[in-house]
Amino acid sequence: MNQFRRTFLKGAGAAGTVAVAVAAGLLKPTQVLAAEWNKAGFTATKLDEALKTIGGAGAAESKDILVKAPDIAENGAVVPVEIESKIPGTTSIALIIETNLNPLCSTYDFSNGALGYVSTRVKMAKSSKVRAIVKAGGKTYTAAKEVKVTIGGCGG
Amino acid sequence: MNRREFLQLLAVAAAGGLALDSKSALAAADTGSLYDLPAFGNVSLLHFTDSHAQLLPIYFREPSVNLGVASMAGKPPHLVGEHLLKHYGIRPGTSEAHAFTYLDFEAAAKTYGKVGGFAHLSTLVKRVRASRPGSLLLDGGDTWQGSATALWTKGQDMVDACKLLGVDVMTGHWEFTYGAERVKEIVDKDLKGKMDFVAHNVKTNDFGDQVFDPYVIRPINGVPVAIIGQAFPYTPIANPRYMIPDWSFGIQDEHLQQMVNEARGKGAQVVVLLSHNGMDVDLKMASRVSGIDAILGGHTHDGVPAPVAVKNAGGQTLVTNAGSNGKFLGVLDFDVKNGKVAGWKYKLLPVFSNLLPADPAMDALIKQVRAPYESKLNEVLAVSDDLLYRRGNFNGTWDQLILDALMEVKGAQLAFSPGFRWGTTILPGEPITMEKLMDQTAITYPQTTVNDFTGQQIKDILEDVCDNLFNPDPYYQQGGDMVRVGGLTYTCNPNAPMGKRINDMRLNGKPVSASKKYKEAGWAPVGEGVTGEPIWEVVAQYLKAKKTIKGVKLNTPKLVGMAGNPGIA
After folding, report:
1. B378-559 — its CATH code?
2. Can you give the pLDDT at residue A152?
3. Where are the domains of chain A?
């Protein structure tokens, strides 16, 4: 990227992928989400309970969901995660950090045939599976990737 | 008996403890055979890695413990001593057996002398290049760190030495511990137009922009050759994050595949990855990414005599690892016909300083670099009656000395010292100078710390580091050795899952309590803003008080499930 674009975007307050998607009308705006806030899910401390609130229990493993995240997190406080669902008719993606105190991290609804793609950063307390739960055509699918969070040091 | 056989016999006798007076006899044998490397093919790449700023010849003992677990068990590079010799068909008692193993180390080191040294390496590079016009010299990184003069000149001595040596392309790891600004200063000013610093897997945190060129394409005798750089993927984890706050690293197979395809698309007929991954990671990467002819690897300091050929979707990829401390020069020759590699030869040449005269220009540069520091470097702190070495999965006598110093000076019950793989070796009877102490400790975050850890915290630390060494998936390994532990005994089961490898922790024979606090001393904190006197001051104080080091008692864990593993002597 050229220096001008970098400076311009930094000055403008860099817009993340999700924010751009909201602006483009592909994601539901925050006000609507607030009304549908899944309080039970986001405050659940057990993985099973969190999964239940989003209908994720018994989801089928799918190779059409790509979970991209580092093998070992460079900083557990901001772990970059990308999820892409290639399943046609994807209507929602939920992101779960299995070992976090509150495993359900975020949910995204897609409308108007939007591409099932999310790029975000998550906080991880310790090593965990980063799991995506995808809804498409009334069915639920899942895929996960192990991300290690380590104390660091002692290398090389 | 011909002349070569006679000389080899002489070498065997010498390695057996018979001191050889005539180095020239040995030199005649080995210069004739060892360094007589007939040219092959039309594309040659010379490779050294992990020299850790050792400008002068040194001793370096290869490990007697280098365990492989899961799919890596018993396979290169996890072979030590006689197992390694057997696997590669190297005869015991030869110069190569000494170079690649710890066997009879003291006696053989006296016979064959020191290894490495940039003036001697330079002579070898010139000799090999003379028969290989157009060849490139590649440096796998960990070049600017590891010695007193490198630390005190912020890597400048090594940058100047590498330019004189004729390095064409490099990548990095410990280089980054001088901080992002210093790295960019060197790359943009010193190296510009002379040497390419490549790293496809270093990107900015904000927009994911490449920080360095991902690769270069250089013609060798008319054949376009792409060299892609792979910096150590876990630099911000194994070393201080705050020194490179805006850069992200990582393994990035998909991006590597894109770079390979892009380079091939631009006409590259040979593609190599100059890697600082560590050998286990390189072997896995070679199985997942296609279109790479060879991965020239480093980081894990494995002196691997022959490449491992790994099958993948595009055919095969050769994976090498070229040792450390300037001890080896890898020579990879490709025969490229009709736009692709038709044949190859590889040799990892040990650099025996006594057999290679010093290159005068490099010798002069080294003398000039050292001149302002000579008195400081040569200060004798103590004399060692023991063999002092570092390398090995769990501990080395040099690290034990550091641990003993930490516990005594800081009044701690136990001590931790990082599992670094660099650091030179001292033979019994040699003085421990400030320079030799800095060989073990010269880093930009040398602070010592004292902590009150609960038994549970101690266990968590040991489990965490142990998983970095023995995770069955190499992509979750970091390539260092196990944290060295002083005062505390434990058992270790490398095959167990994380959280279950470390057991029976004891202090003075008593079981460690999970909730009780213990006083621990350590060094090399990766967090920002930690204060404490530098480790070399603590150890120097200890050495000066002791005057003679004798009977260092190596504390290593009791191993479970490793019987029969050829990665342990």
Report:
1. 3.90.780.10
2. 79
3. 3-147
Tokens of B245: 């706050």
Show me where the domains of chain B are located: 34-59+113-367, 378-559
Locate the chain A residue with the closest alpha carbon to B145: A156
Q: Which residues of chain B have pLDDT under 50?
A: 1-7, 9-22, 24-25, 27-28, 30-31
Q: A3-147: which CATH topology?
A: Immunoglobulin-like (2.60.40)
CA distances (Å), origin B37, targets B319, B329, B330, B415: 21, 12, 12, 47
Q: Do B250 and A75 touch (CB under 8 A)?
A: no
Report the CATH architecture of B34-59+113-367.
Answer: 4-Layer Sandwich (3.60)
Which of A2, A5, A72, A151 has the most B C-beta neighbours within 10 Å, making it the best mutation to test the interface with B?
A72
C-beta atoms surrounding B209 within 10 Å: 13
Residue whose tokens read 């199985």: B287
Phi, psi (degrees; rounded to nearest 5) at B401: -60, -45
CA–CA separation, A100 and A97 (whole Å): 6
Residues of A in contact with B206 (CB under 8 A): 6, 10, 14
Chain A residues 113-142 with a CB less than 8 Å from chain B: 127
Strand partners, B296: B274, B320
Q: Nearest residue of B to residue A154 by CA position?
A: B418
**pLDDT the model gives residue B24:** 47
